[in-house]
Amino acid sequence: VLLLNNGKILSDGTIPELMTRLPGTECVRFSYSSSMERRLLEQVPGVKGIEINHDSNLVTLDVDDAKKVVSYFINEDLFYHLKDFSIAKRTIYDVFLRLTGTSLNDG
Predict the structure, then answer these.
(1) Contact 31, 83 (CB under 8 A)
(2) Could you give the 3-state DSSP secondary structure of residue 18?
């Protein structure tokens, strides 16, 4: 598989090889109602990557076991601060986003 962007090769390999470029096999996304600090998220067990968009109040966590993250939020009484919570398996599209920083629909 070749990943291309604007005619340039970004990366190549099998899909499993390309997927190893991501810091986790699952993605936990949520928005938050109060301020969310990076240091708080760094304490969550199993988090391999953190992306916080303060403009949209959206957090993306790269993890291998989303159940541990959910359990942590519940046990630490943090779940009530979260909105629009979702868990997804990583895809080849996530690799493209990581490599380019843009979606297929952006410019």
Answers:
(1) yes
(2) helix
